[in-house]
Each structure stands twice: as structure tokens, then as C-alpha cells.
Amino acid sequence: MQAAIVILDRLAELYILLIFVRVIYSWVRPQGGSGFAYNFIYQTTQPIFALVHKIFPKTTVGMLDLSPLLALLAVDLIRYAILWLLVRL
Length: 89
What we know:
Helix content: over 70%
Number of strands: 2
Number of helices: 3
Largest sheet: 2 strands, antiparallel
């Protein structure tokens, strides 16, 4: 059981890292530029962003998009809830 907890925790950390990479890449990516790495990161993180946009349709404040922050919060909450349940077993 301990191994499952560690693996799940590492996967959540990797997903959080992918969200950060997506945000940074969106700042520095040239217009119209894409590639395998960007497509992989986009397709991997899009489900959580779609969930955030579905729950909170307006996630922008001026030119600042808060959806990555909400996605990080959602991933952390899900991670801690699952880990809490696994520890209780």
C-alpha cells in the first residue's frame, strides 16, 4: 500500500509540473508554433483546465488568466483527498 501512495503522489507532482510547464510555454511560445512536446503537455493538462472552465466560466481578471491557479488547487485537493483515503485503509 505504501508503494501505491508514493506512486500516486509522484504522479500528482508530475501533473503539477506539467501545468507549470504549460503556463510558462504559453508565455514564451511563438504564435502558431507547436510541436510534439507542446501537444503532449496540452493534451495531458487539458482535462483539468476544461473542468476548471466548466465550473468557473469566467477565470480572467483583466489580462490575467487564473485558470492555472485553480487547476493547481484542484489537483492538490484531489491528491490530498485520495492520499488521505489511502492512508486510512
